[in-house]
Amino acid sequence: MSKLVACLLSASLLAACGEDKEPRTKTFKAGFEWGSATAAYQVEGGNTQADFYLWEQRCEPGDEVGERDSSETFIDCQSNLDGPNFWEKYESDWDQAVAMGHNSARLGIEWAKIEPTQGTYDPAVLAHYHAILDAARARGLDLMVTLQHFTLPAWANDIDDPNLGLGGWGGSDTTPAGQAPIIAEFVRFAGDMGEEFGEDVDLWVTINEPMVILPACYLAGLLPPARSLEVGRTLRALYNMAYAHAGAYDALHARDLGDADGDGDTALVSVAHHWRIFDPFDPSSPLDVEAAARFDEVFNRFFIDVLTSGKVDLNADGDLDDPGEGVDVALADRLDWLGLNYYGRKLAKAPLVTFDDILVPFYFVENEDPERPHNDMGWEVYPQGMERMLAEARGWGLPIRITENGMADADDAERPGFIVSHLKALAHAMRDGADVRGYYHWTLMDNFEWLDGYGPRFGLLQVDFDDPARTRTRTRGADAMQAIIEAGEVTSAIEESFGTLGE
Ligand code: BGC
Predict the structure, then answer these.
(1) Strands 268-280 and 33-37
(2) pLDDT tens for residues 397-428?
(3) Which of 147, 450, 452, 463 has most ligand 1 atoms within 8 Å of CB, for mutation?
């Protein structure tokens, strides 16, 4: 067939038709946000005012390095104080982010540092955050700021006080859901930060991963205040966080009047919501199937439903006819966009357990299939989940940003393929109609991985923690992401040179 005939017959062959200069449409168009995400406590160091720091202090080292014994809160009793020191190295870190092709960045500001005693802000800390944000803006990075990422000021969740200071997100046994004293404090803080930093920031994340912190704090007893099996408190805390978010949403809209990028929007507010794919451990077991569905309902969907519809379903039974339930307009329509943190898949197992009349999915495990790839922490790498998540999450009709996605991979052998495969899945979902505005890789540099200390390496920049200067080395993961940013899509050449993972 002559080239001319081929051109006439098939629009898809246009690219081969000499004169036809119509450029192929790229999936990731100009204006798509590319960046990495960090959390203040994990990268800054010097944080001695947070509930987590009190938790660090409780640590009694076990005998085996690399093993946590029952008295250890953090592996090997490692501390945020020994981190990558972003607090001082932010200028060169922003230089590296720009060199990787990033045009945006998600970072946290630490409430505990800014307000070490209740009601008093530290001007030097605020000034330092201004310097960090200014340095990013001067390099052309747009900013997304997280107000709370797992840690609270010690005065708000004082684990050394039987009443926990202000009571944290869980409040006290007598405070009804949605009325814990911390809510008013967080709303005030959010509004003040909106006014303080609004000229530089349009994208706000109020709370990082409510659905991770709640079970970890009140069910599994892993994080401060380390309560176990307190299902009722977990649900009350969920509503305390929902009201704190909704109040912060209103406060940020009222008080962030600065339009950082000049597009007419001064404050666009979300949470960063951790989403997991839950599949049944045994697909032929109806009880495992039911457990996976219940996990999806309560872990993935519940909190976002609350902040979109305003439903107050205090026992999560799906109806709103129990005492105190209904729809509260003060909670509804409080997301301008949806931030999703995606890391992979878990396998749900029976039984579902009823505590305080609340049906709780209780049990999930890793997929240990040796054919599947896993990160250094044993989590299955499952890029297909990116597409499955977006197919569900687009149902809320909100613009979406991937606010975290990454893998612990100390030798950086698999990170490039991880990035390629997850961005391919993201591109598919976008071509199918998912409205995704940005991708923020977790994380910019190796950091303090909470209870696991400095073992797991999630960084696009590797950090040498033996070197007092905390030298950074750029990874091939960063190269893979940069190649995709520059191409505006995942080309077959990129796939060939960086590989894929878990497809
Ligand atoms: C959290 C991060 C954490 C990452 C890897 C996310 O759920 O937001 O703080 O470092 O997972 O564990």
Answers:
(1) unpaired
(2) 999 999 999 999 999 999 999 999 999 999 99
(3) 450
